[in-house]
Write a structure and sequence with these properties.
By secondary structure, the chain is α/β, with parallel strands linked by helices. α3 links the parallel β5 and β6.
């Protein structure tokens, strides 16, 4: 772990590490809380300071656990949470944010995302986000699970271009976004946050991925993460509660994939040749 973690520059000019920690399914089992809190703190120790959560995770229990983990280290984390679509009316978004802040034990979120599209108009959600910014309750906002048409609709809304991030499902086995969504986000300066970057571990038995890993004296997970680290303005948030797996993920920064490696990965996981529906987990 010698190399510095590369950074992603948000439209507002702020830079954040390109490798963070997802927390989906943390905080749901009290017997695991000690290990989960240790994992969050180890991620901070390793420089993986983007900590991603959501009000929907465990119906708030994940946010409460993250609040415990960051109790004495809040200033070290770039803290991200999300409003559920059913709460994303103007007043509902503000109320949901205030509830998240209480569970997280903080006065301000670094980034607040709309978890996915719902019934509430984007105009109302964006207005709420901008209000929360003025109130100092969030520093920035973005979206999650938005396809190209969603992003275009968002940017047509007043202040919609203030969107900093689109968090999407993206990994070697889910490359459909490369056809149009990633180019759109790059063109408009929106950073992309990849969730489930190793497909919840299901990628790791692929023979070609294993071959590339062995050729580089690395692990399959490191290759899968290095593939994403090659992308411009791409931030990955693998979830783990294992301290050794956190260190393994951090080691992906040291891996430089060759053109031959990338060609083998393209053969095993072909890039899209046409528009594909946005995938979600």
């Amino acid at each position: 772990m010698n190399d510095i973690i590369p950074t992603v520059t948000l439209p507002c000019g702020l830079t954040v590490p390109a490798l963070g920690l997802g927390t989906w399914m943390m905080g749901e089992d009290a017997s695991a809380a000690k290990d989960e809190i240790a994992a969050v703190n180890h991620a901070l120790d390793l420089g993986m300071t983007v900590i991603d959560t959501a009000e929907k995770y465990g119906d708030g229990s994940t946010e409460r656990l993250i609040g415990q983990a960051l109790k004495t280290r809040r200033d070290e984390a770039y803290l991200v949470s999300k409003v559920a679509p059913w709460n994303a009316s103007r007043d509902g978004t503000i109320s949901a944010c205030e509830s998240s802040l209480k569970r997280l034990g903080t006065d301000c979120l670094d980034l607040y995302l709309l978890h996915w599209r719902g019934e509430h108009p984007l105009t109302d959600t964006v207005d709420a986000f901008e209000t929360l910014k003025r109130q100092g309750k969030i520093k920035a906002w973005g979206v999650s699970n938005f396809d190209v048409d969603d992003m275009e609709e968002l940017f047509a809304v007043e202040n919609g271009a203030n969107c900093q991030v689109n968090q999407i499902l993206y990994n070697l086995s889910r490359r459909g976004v490369e056809y149009d969504l990633l180019p759109w986000c790059q063109k408009h300066g929106v950073a992309v946050m990849a969730y489930s970057p190793i497909q919840q571990g299901r990628l790791l038995q692929n023979p070609e991925l294993i071959h590339v890993a062995k050729a580089n004296q690395a692990t399959p997970a490191q290759v899968a993460l290095a593939f994403l680290l090659e992308r411009d303005n791409m931030l990955s948030i693998p979830k783990t509660t294992s301290l050794s797996r956190l260190e393994e993920n951090r080691g992906s920064v040291d891996l430089d994939l060759t053109d031959e490696d990338l060609a083998r990965l393209d053969a095993a996981f072909p890039p899209p040749q046409q528009k594909q529906p946005l995938e979600m987990l």
